[in-house]
Design goal:
Blueprint (H helix, E strand, L loop, with lengths): L15 H8 L4 H17 L6 H6 L17 H11 L7 H5 L2 H13 L7
């Protein structure tokens, strides 16, 4: 008996989790975390007077977040990502100057997901 599109059985369904296990692909959360950490390393390797590095530490004077806006900014998110990799925030800029060590750190974000870096 041939199955048509409307006759698929529940046993025929394959979950996203199962597909990721079979293919070795990491979750989107792990991919985004790895890219955030990689971008932070790129900024930390820039000269101190580079615009991106200056903007990284800039805090507007006399401003506060409006109601309904996200409570966390990009820096706070990266701090969480770095902490998950068991690296202290103050040590991260120095670690970023060693590209091999930084690549290892960013790869841990993917490897911790059970997938492989693509």
């Amino acid at each position: 008996m041939d199955q048509t599109d409307s006759e698929y059985l529940l046993e025929d369904k394959v979950t996203n989790v199962k597909v990721r296990e079979l293919t070795g692909m990491p979750t989107l959360e792990h991919i985004i975390r790895e890219r955030r950490i990689r971008w932070a390393g790129h900024i930390w390797r820039m000269p101190n007077d580079a615009l991106a590095r200056t903007a990284l530490n800039w805090i507007p004077a006399g401003c506060k977040r409006k109601p309904g806006w996200p409570h966390m900014d990009w820096i706070q998110t990266v701090k969480q990502d770095i902490a998950r990799a068991d690296v202290k925030w103050d040590d991260a800029p120095q670690l970023a100057t060693d590209r091999a060590a930084w690549r290892t750190l960013t790869a841990q974000c993917i490897d911790g997901a059970g997938g492989s870096k693509v």
